[in-house]
Amino acid sequence: MDRRLFACALSACMFAGPVWAVAGSNDDDDDDEGGSKLPPGFNVPETVLQQSVGQRFPMRYPVPGLLNLDVQVPQLRLLPEQNRLAANMAVLAAGPALNRSHRGSFDVDFALRYESRDRTVRAHQLRLNRLRFPTLAPGVEDMLNTYAPLIGQQMLHEVVLHQLSPQDLAMADALNMQPGSITVTETGLRIGLVLKPL
Fold first, then answer.
1. Less Cβ crowding at N or C end of the chain, within 10 Å?
2. What is the pLDDT of residues 73-113, one digit of tens each?
3. Which CATH architecture has domain 47-161?
């Protein structure tokens, strides 16, 4: 039997828990528009991602000598058509440059990558949209937006969205497989498994 087919067959037999999913196990969910199957792997629900990122916020970003931006817990949104995640973030601006505190928000979207060193799924390829502060003068808001790319990189660049445990990967290791592709679905993430290099 071909080694790849053998690994997939073993996956079908062994990964029977609710998180693990095998290609072809659900024709309606696993087909993409071209009719192909997602690779063997397992699912990470959106609620798990939200809980994980929530543990890292709120976060303060200082603009030295001017103000502090206090960023609250991001509200994640799945973008399966782009294979990305989006996050809406509430922010409070206060400091010497402002006569009072101001509430605002901004949006980011980002791709995902797997870091084998610590078994984490991380945000990368970040895109930040304009900071919005309805109560700020337009000139001050424009000034803040000059810092927007730096703020986005500081807040979410390489933020850990999920960490796999050694137990999560025990069966994959036994089959000489490892996490590969990360696919954003309608309900969360699908982390595909691929054979380890020879």
1. C
2. 999 999 999 999 999 999 999 999 888 999 999 999 999 99
3. Super Roll (3.15)
